[in-house]
Amino acid sequence: MEIEKAVMRQHKFFASGRTKDYAFRRIALLKLQAGIRKYEKDLIKALQKDLHKSKSEAYMAEIGLTLSELTYNLRHLARWMYPKYVHSSLLHFPAKSYVMPEPYGVTLIMAPWNYPVLLCLEPLISAIAAGNCVVLKPSAYAPTVSKVLKKMLTELYPEKYVLVIEGGREENQKLLDCRFDKIFFTGGAAVGKEVLQKAVKHITPVTLELGGKSPCIVDKTANIRLAAKRVAFGKILNSGQTCVAPDYLLLHENIKEPFLQCLEQEFIRMLGNEPLQNPDYPRIVNEKHYHRIMKLIQAENIRFGGYGNREDLQIAPTVLEDVTLDSLVMQEEIFGPILPVLTFQRREDVLGIIEHYEKPLACYLFTKDAKFKRWALKNISFGGGCINDTIMHIASSELGFGGVGASGMGSYHGKKGFECFSHEKSIVERGTWIDVPVRYQPYAKWKSFWIRKFLK
Prior knowledge:
Layout: H1 2-15, H2 22-38, H3 40-51, H4 55-81, E1 84-86, E2 95-103, E3 106-110, H5 118-129, E4 133-137, H6 143-156, E5 162-164, H7 169-177, E6 182-186, H8 189-200, E7 206-209, E8 215-218, H9 224-236, E9 248-252, H10 256-271, H11 287-297, E10 301-304, E11 308-309, E12 314-315, E13 318-321, E14 338-344, H12 347-354, E15 362-366, H13 370-379, E16 384-387, E17 401-402, E18 408-409, E19 411-412, H14 414-420, E20 422-430, H15 445-454
Parallel strand pairs: 3-4, 3-6, 4-5, 6-7, 8-9, 8-15, 9-14, 13-14, 15-16
Antiparallel strand pairs: 1-2, 2-20, 7-18, 10-13, 11-12, 17-19
């Protein structure tokens, strides 16, 4: 009942119209910017405690990206709020036509544990910029970050505007039983389906940011050393607990051996000969996920790595050879520092392997072959990705981020985020100085003649 009452207070506050003003939105974003800077050290410490993230990774992959998104929104917000004028048909003469964005109302943002700062605050930025009230639900698997976020946001905003609800499954269910005007969920597909089912009750629009098995294709023309370096970065970032991490390698048969040799060298160069002793290497979020990932390694041919430390919940970067589509590691999204390797000879082999699974959230292609690049972009369906790199497409506010098919629906970041939390009203504003009579009864041949001229 307390959660329901709090949500109702937000509906009441939104109805006052205050959140729709440009000045209100801008001030709210500036407050968040100042709040993040004030609590930066606390957030970094919390990320270290919950996920063993280093200061550098915590800033680069969470706080820095959030501040960059804030800066981008502050720079462009006024222009995004303007009506967008479009061409008016002769059928409407005299008239002007335009699209006007308006906030949905009270929005629910449900965030995951793997990037508990970034994936709480980036959608929050978009929701505030679009003029909404927000209920934010951080993940219970990152409890220290959750507490810091609650403290910071409670200090910055009244709860009738931005409310943080902590807790686990019970709180999630209570929130999903409330009426919201928009739901934004980041997490796994199983919970995403539950969110969709709950949203049906109130016909609530939903954005789902999910995941899947994201392939990383390395062609025989690729720069092998650089490709190995960038693949290694994408896989050890947050110890592989990234929704857009390379999930498996598709290597051309001709470059398999030199590539895997380079990849092993890059893992060693980045983390040292003993990665579990590296103070900057993140850990697996909890014991349940540690055991799940270690089980995926069993009975596989380990090229290197393949061991972990249960006490510290860390797993060494691991490459698995001779993997098949029937292997256990190929049955689910890995979400850890494990890289299965498959090979191909023809590009049709690549498509057959990728289409064996649901459409992935990301796809990475390393090649110098322009024809192969064009073929891949035309034939492989995925949410987003990179050519000759990994991960970096999510670091641009100019590019929308989102999935397709089972990897998600809807996108955000930058203007796409503003649009994600906005409804676009389509308006035709007619002039009154003349009224062309062709559409009115009684119908006549001459009216039909002109209607056919206009509508074809």
